[in-house]
Amino acid sequence: MARKTPHAWPRGAKLATLWMIALGLICALGLAVADVAVAEEGDPEAPKAGVPVYRLLNPWDGQHLFTADPDEVADLLPLGWKDEGVAFRAYPADAKPAGENVVEVHRLFNHWNGDHILSANQKEIDERKAEGWTDEEIVCYALSSGTDYPVYRLYNQYMTRNSGCGSHLWTLDKEGEYDPLVIKGWTGEDIQFYAIGPAEPPIPTTPVDIHGALSVRGTNLVDSHGVNFQLRGMSTHGIAWFPQYVNEAGFQTLRDDWGANCVRLAMYTAEYNGYCTGGDQNWLKDLVRQGVDAATDLGMYAIIDWHVMNEDKSPTTYEQQARVFFDEMSRLYKDHDNVIYEICNEPYKDIPWSTVKGYAERIIPVIRANDPDAIVIVGTPNWSQDVDQAAANPVSGASGQNTLYAFHFYANTHKDDFRTKVTRALDSGLPIFISEFGTCDASGNGGYNPEESQKWIDFANSRNISWMNWSLCNKGETASAIQSWCNKTSDWQTWELTESGNWVRNQMRAAAGL
Hints:
The chain has helices at 16-32, 70-76, 122-130, 174-183, 207-211, 248-258, 281-297, 319-332, 353-370, 381-384, 387-392, 416-427, 450-462, 499-512, and strands at 51-57, 64-67, 82-92, 102-109, 116-119, 134-143, 149-156, 167-171, 187-195, 215-217, 220-222, 232-236, 262-268, 301-307, 339-342, 375-378, 403-410, 432-438, 467-472. By secondary structure, it is of the alpha/beta class. The strands form four sheets. It has an eight-stranded parallel β-barrel, surrounded by seven helices. Strands 2-1-3-6-4-5 form a six-stranded antiparallel sheet, with helices on one face. α8 packs parallel to α9 (353-370).
């Protein structure tokens, strides 16, 4: 991936406007109170002093950037820079306060290695400029003494990422960050100046930041605050068949342009070079990991889908492989709040619920041994349509906690009688997740039916049922979201989407308030 620095910014990023609004409000608050005394800690009603100086991380080369300019933040976040919150608060660059101990904090840029430094030392500033560094002028004003917020500087002469150069870091946290990094080999350069306000955590902006770990309460999925929450997003097609759509840029398009908060990674167990029928298992697991990692970086939820279907019929066919797979995945993601496990996509039409239930009661403990609070989705008989059977005899004991039951519909095939079935299951207390649906008939090709699709989505929204659309690919069939001639794997324009793709995008955008 090409290295990105603050001196090579593309314009027109999708999130820039939203971020400018949010961060602009923060900045405006800071400017309005720039001359007030430092707020007392622990007083939530006290105004915040000065302006925030933001701390951003470039994940591609490991360097940090510090800025008091919300427009700069707004430009960098959509490029993948990580918001690490407010490093400290200081006086604004355009309003120098009175006082003998006021110092100018300059930012200097090294064109040769991309490093930035903050400095309040005029001798250092002059030396750097003489060496060819660019003085990017005053970032803020701080103090040479007299506050409870000393700003420490560290230098790492060895970069382990891509830059091959040193890097600087500024922090208020001596015990939690400065001292541990010195022990690890960073050079501690002691206190550089004094800020006038404390560090602040990043503003929650992504779905996972805002909603955190999910759980099941009654028939509802709820977030970490106990509020009803609905997942909405796209399922990939089989990742062995269409691996190109497992990419962060594509997922970001779903999040930012479509309003999705979740992706489903469909890994076939039998069909299409399935995991259990000769497919390259290491490669497939790498694809799953790439997908989960991309979703995690974007603050989206991710469903790992063990895509049982027609050839394997019963989830018990490859149960041993499922045990090993889910043990590995749940060990890997046990500390993630965003990973959901779907343990059998669509048991075949003649597989009884007792068989599926027994499988679930053996696989769920494997997952919960590593991740005790994990959300698990259990498929239901007849290609995940017979939720009434599960409602009559749901998974029991601890395995039944934080467990959802899959229902799948294809709008031109499954109509009012199936909505009645789902309603009865919900009313009996069964929590349901529409982990796959199509806007067409059950074959996936033909019978596009937006009217019946709308009935389903309106129903799901009214009952707080999460839903995932099939599928994110350019396969030449009605259910696909992308036109068959379009080879783009992200940043799709509306004319590059199918009728189904545009309809689903509009539903997500409406639900997300975009």
